[in-house]
Amino acid sequence: MTIPSDAECGYLHVGYMRNNGKNVFTLLRILDGDKNTLAENDEECSQNKFICTLEGKWVRRGSPVNTDDPSLFWRTIKSENPFLHKTRKTKVNDKTSMTMVGVVFPEEYSLRKKQDGWVFLMRHLQKVNKNHQEHNALVRPVYAGRVDMAHRVPFFDLLQQKKIAVFGAGCLGAPSILEFARCGVGEIRMLDHDFFDPGTAVRWPFGMDAAGQLKVVHLAKFIRKNYPYTKARDVVHRLGITSLAAKKENTDLAVLRDILKDVDMIYDATTELGLQHLLSDLAAAQKIPYVGISTTQGAWGGIVIRISPQSTAGCWGCYRHFFAKNKKMRPPADESGFVQPKGCGDVTYVGAGFDAQQIALEGVRAAVSTLTQDNEGGYPALPWDLSVLHLRDGDGSPIPHTWATFKIDPHPDCRCAND
Ligand SMILES: [Zn+2]
What we know:
Layout: E1 9-19, E2 22-32, E3 37-40, E4 52-60, H1 70-80, E5 90-91, E6 96-110, E7 113-128, E8 131-139, H2 146-152, H3 156-160, E9 163-167, H4 173-182, E10 187-192, H5 215-226, E11 231-236, H6 252-260, E12 265-268, H7 273-286, E13 290-295, E14 301-307, H8 316-325, E15 338-339, E16 348-349, H9 353-372, E17 386-392, E18 398-406
Parallel strand pairs: 4-6, 9-10, 9-12, 10-11, 12-13
Antiparallel strand pairs: 1-2, 1-4, 2-3, 5-6, 6-7, 7-8, 13-14, 14-17, 15-16, 17-18
Helix pairs in contact: 4-5, 4-9
Zinc ion (ZN) binds near residues 314 and 318.
């Protein structure tokens, strides 16, 4: 938020909350002396669950207050500004009232360049045995608006306009979902049916804290709390179960139609060939890009396949035709790399999270590039459609990460060649 340089003093609206034992404040609005709004925070920041909203005051000063003693700080600005002699305090509980005072001053942000800097003073009044005890504390200001995010990740604003449907929230899908939220994707719709078995904490982003939670419910809750600029929608559904088991309104078709409405991309982390076929077909029908990621037994390697109507000459079927014949497209796999752990209905693969996550990260890179490459400030275009990761050689000895990349051209035997 920036305010006119000739505005001298006024009011503040500040949301107050407690977070892990700390007082945390969100500056919601800056008003002038007549209570006209000068600047307002992003709407998403006003949706936090605040204990209360404080009305505070702010004043402009020609230089910073040169002290880190909160009481001296308060005495200094109070003696300079009759406007601060009366400050309204807001009751935060039976015994405590609080207010916030802001001081804005010229601050050097890079060599000899100045802009408004802020410092805040929390004023706290507590009733102890009929006496009022006053306590002042300086509050460190930090900047976490959309603009501040975009300073660090230049394509943040472009991704804010994008909606991605992610299928699968396992050890590849979950880290991908979190990366999408970090870099600013506007809306993530995530589908998975499974709950988090804490025995898989060795390669899922969360541990015991999430035990027994539905994976997408937990991920969406975490994103809403931590990444306010990303809308997170969880869809708990198992694709491919018989229609007898599904409620009529929850048929696969109805669920798919709903989750895919107006999305910009399908991101497939199901690592299930039948679903990959279906989802890549749906993406083609909707003329949106498809990105599919998978790892191999032992997490010795993996695949990222991107089929984009703009950038890829062939289709997913072409890719499968090439894949069937071309050994170079096969990532290495540990043939003995399956186990059936105690209490687990399915066989699973042996492999570490740090190996599997390489594939998730490359998948997110392919997705972000595909979504933003044509815009100014976007992530550059990747000149390949398929990338194959090798973490081991054929005998299982570790090798430096090696990515083999391929363009997917139309295959003469693919049905798309005869369309
Ligand atoms: Zn094809």
